[in-house]
Amino acid sequence: MVGREWKARTALLCAALMLLGILLVAAPALADVSEFEISAARATAPGQVEVTVKANFPADSPEGRYVRVSVLDSNGWVLDSQKLEWSSGRTETRKASFTGLPYVWGARYAIQADAYCPLYGHHFQRVSLWATGDIRVFVDGRQIELDTAPVIVGGRVLVPARGVFEALGATVTYDEATREVTITRGDTVVVLPLGAGYAFKNRARVNLDVAAQVMEGRTMVPLRFVSEMMGVKTTWDARAHAVYLSTRELIVDWTYAPEEGGTP
Questions:
Q1: Where are the alpha helices (DSSP H) in 79-231?
Q2: CB-based contact 55:92 (threshold 8 Å)
Q3: How many Å apart are CA 211 and CA 223, to the nearest integer?
Q4: pLDDT truncated to tens, each residue of the chain (264 aa)?
Q5: Short-list 141, 146, 187, CA closest to 165
């Protein structure tokens, strides 16, 4: 009796193992979400964020695929989020834009992307960025477009020489052999050797508090240098994260005044 019962249990176990093997062979391989990344994230202005996400979901994955992009504050609280629907079987890129986010000067946001697909679960990626956004430049009250954002180095604001000087009506040329930038505006001729702590304005030497330097293929110069070379009024507003240049006498001084109830 015991022998028969043992044989029956053995037969059931073998059948179960065979069925499991058939199911495993017939089931699709559990491919993973590939090429999943936050390819770009930047604060376009204080309280504004743009995030670009790239992902490739498996072609055999069922419906219900998405990527949820969230902006979190420094304490980990979710400030806002967006759900981006996704197709399958190919690499795709989506953008999420956020506006009106609260921010604290000098703080950072955490950007989190959660890729979800039925059967394959969740995949996370997180990056951080400054909450204040790129430094903006205004000439006579009008914002100018620059291909390279100004930066702060050693407590000094550096601006892209070509974009700023051309916006002021100057001509900018570069001599690769001598590694010198020449800036011409009216009767003013400025020669700026790269990497040196000085320049020549109409052949007179002028010392710089920070040497001109090349960043991402662009010549960056101190804001004070622009003022001294072109004779324009320059103002750096740290709270507004903005540079103001004026070629004429100011009627209204540029100052930062947050909206009532807003966060500076």
A1: 161-167, 223-230
A2: yes
A3: 11
A4: 555 665 556 665 555 555 544 444 443 444 467 778 888 888 887 889 999 998 888 777 777 888 999 999 988 999 999 999 887 777 889 999 999 999 876 688 999 999 888 777 788 889 888 777 778 889 998 888 888 888 877 778 888 999 999 999 999 999 989 999 999 999 999 999 988 889 999 999 999 888 888 887 888 898 888 888 888 898 888 767 788 999 875 444 444 444 443 333
A5: 146
- Count of the separate structural domains present in the chain: 3
Beta bridge partners of 235: 244
Write out the residue range of the structural domain in which residue 15 sits: 1-27
The pTM of the full predicted model, rounded to 2 decimals, is: 0.51
253 belongs to a structural domain = no
User: Same structural domain for residues 125 and 184?
Assistant: no
Three-class DSSP category at 26: helix
HSE toward the beta carbon, residue 5, CA cutoff 13 A: 2
Least Cα distance to 82 among 103, 109, 102, 112 occurs for: 112
Could you tell me the end-to-end alpha-carbon distance of the chain, in angstroms, rounded to an integer?
A: 86
Residue 259 lies in a domain: no
| Helix, strand, coil percent content, the chain, rounded in steps of 5 | 15, 45, 40
Q: Is residue 188 in some structural domain? A: yes
150 belongs to a structural domain: yes
**Domain closes at, from 130, 157, 177:** 130
Residues 17-49: b if buried by 16+ CB within 10 A, e if exposed: eeeeeeeeeeeeeeeebeebebeebebebbbbb
